[in-house]
Amino acid sequence: MPRSRPRLARPSSTSAPLEVLAPDGGIVDVRELAKEVCRRYRAEFGDEEERYGDAGRAWCVHDNQYLLHWALLDVRGTTRLGDQVAWLAGVLEARDFPLDRLARDLELCADVIAETGAPWADDVARRLRAATSAATGG
Predict the structure, then answer these.
(1) What is the DSSP letter of 14?
(2) Is the torsion defined by CA of 101, 95, 112, 42 positive or negative?
(3) Span 26-136: which CATH code?
(4) Is this structure's pTM higher than 0.70?
(5) What residues does 91 pair with on adjacent strands?
(6) What is the mean pLDDT of residues 86-99?
(7) How far apart are CA 81 and CA 69, in angstroms?
């Protein structure tokens, strides 16, 4: 009889950032952007629902809020996106999460950011795409 995978618990500890200061001084609602990234991600990886359930959706939004937050902070020079992504990749790898999917998720983040049309969006998107190598250790 195959072992069933234990159900993933929803995020319960640290709340992910909801908003972050943009390079132009405006406020970016990273939660709404993260929801769009997750919608696209789930459409692309249909097996996620069975594998992780509703908790996986919550983690997707949670982790993408952080990824988007870190990318915007990277532009301001207050954090290094690559370092944060490498740390997250280590956590996810220990939990048996496929790191190629983290890399794809970063590309989706870049697409969503670029589509905002904000004056800083292309710079943030470029950094997100560059961070895919940190996600896969490449």
Answers:
(1) S
(2) positive
(3) 1.10.490
(4) yes
(5) none
(6) 93
(7) 9
